[in-house]
């Protein structure tokens, strides 16, 4: 599928701004999940600013698409997208994780506009998303549920229970996206709990599977649009990404899964993303 050049460029610029917002959210001297936030920024940008039907003025409108951040530890990424979309002021990102702020280290459905469920206990988001997807079918709501998972999360047994159930119930309104950056909190996926061959596993569970470059906006849009044509089974988009994308000193560095920025590298990160 061919996409308008201005659309692609606009989304790429928005993703870059969201990465910058992530850095601002972390600030100096406080640990924050820059690695997995930046690896997923293009994916989340495509959802909020191209694909999903949603309304910042009416976050709970019934006829909306749902997004679940199963890897809830990168909440700052979703906060950045929500603020850029108009759910709350961008300036509030600087209050992230402060006492009394409505922007905490994991998504809070009771406090933050645009959050669909509290997530972060890894492995649970896909099950929640499946429940929502099946409920929407029962209610006659013809929209999608999108769930962003991490590749370290693939070691969780509940993921595979949800995968089997989604296939059995033919949940074709459920789209999972795997941020396959190859790293988790304490090392490489292949060294900790190797989940490969991941594509064959999801195919074996009866899912429609598409593999893409998770930083190629045209491939992301094409995969999301293609999922609309799939009937009778859920879709998994395996997005190959770079942990810490866009910040040179954080790219593919395990230490920046949840890393602390000094004044010097904070300024460097902002400069590289500007």
Q: Nutshell version of this structure?
A:
The chain is α/β, with parallel strands linked by helices. It is 40% helix and 14% strand.
Topology record:
Blueprint (H helix, E strand, L loop, with lengths): L4 H22 L4 E2 L1 H18 L14 E4 L5 H11 L39 H14 L6 E6 L6 H12 L5 E7 L2 E2 L2 E2 H4 L5 H7 L3 E6 L3 H11 L7 E6 L18 E2 L2 H10 L2
Helix pairs in contact: 1-2, 1-3, 2-3, 2-8, 4-5
Keywords:
274 residues, alpha/beta, Rossmann fold, 5-stranded parallel sheet, two-stranded antiparallel ribbon, 9 strands, 40% helix
What would your notes on this structure say?
The protein has 274 residues and is α/β, with parallel strands linked by helices. The protein has a single domain, classed as Thiamin diphosphate (ThDP)-binding fold, Pyr/PP domains (Rossmann fold). The chain is built from 9 helices and 9 strands. It has helices spanning 5-26, 34-51, 75-85, 125-138, 157-168, 189-192, 198-204, 217-227, 263-272, and strands spanning 31-32, 66-69, 145-150, 174-180, 183-184, 187-188, 208-213, 235-240, 259-260. The strands form 3 sheets. The chain has a 5-stranded parallel beta sheet, sandwiched between helices. A hairpin with a 2-residue loop joins strand 5 (183-184) and strand 6 (187-188). Helix 2 runs parallel beside helix 3 (75-85), helix 2 (34-51) crosses helix 8 and helix 4 (125-138) packs parallel to helix 5 (157-168). It is globular. The chain starts with a helix and ends with a helix.
């Amino acid at each position: 599928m061919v996409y308008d050049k201005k659309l692609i460029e606009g989304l790429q610029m928005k993703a870059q701004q969201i990465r910058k917002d992530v850095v601002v959210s972390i600030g100096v001297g406080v640990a924050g999940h820059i690695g997995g936030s930046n690896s997923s920024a293009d994916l989340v940008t495509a959802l909020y600013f191209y694909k999903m039907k949603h309304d910042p003025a009416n976050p709970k409108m019934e006829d909306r698409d749902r997004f679940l951040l199963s890897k809830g530890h990168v909440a700052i990424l979703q906060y950045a997208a929500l603020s850029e979309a108009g759910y709350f002021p961008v300036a509030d990102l600087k209050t992230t994780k402060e006492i009394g702020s409505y922007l905490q280290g994991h998504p809070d459905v009771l406090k933050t506009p645009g959050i669909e469920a509290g997530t972060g206990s890894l492995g649970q988001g896909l099950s929640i998303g499946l429940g929502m997807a099946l409920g929407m079918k029962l209610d006659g709501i013809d929209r999608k549920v999108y769930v962003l998972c991490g590749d370290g999360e693939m070691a969780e047994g509940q993921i595979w229970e949800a995968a089997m159930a989604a296939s059995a119930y033919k949940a074709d309104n459920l789209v999972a996206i795997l941020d396959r950056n190859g790293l988790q909190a304490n090392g490489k996926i292949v060294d900790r709990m190797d989940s490969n061959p991941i594509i064959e596993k999801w195919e074996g569970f009866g899912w429609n599977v598409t593999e893409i470059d998770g930083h190629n906006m045209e491939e992301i849009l094409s995969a999301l649009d293609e999922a609309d044509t799939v009937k009778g089974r859920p879709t998994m988009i395996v997005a190959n990404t770079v942990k810490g994308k866009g910040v040179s000193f954080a790219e593919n560095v395990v230490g920046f899964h949840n890393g602390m920025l000094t004044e010097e590298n904070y300024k460097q990160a902002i400069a590289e993303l500007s």
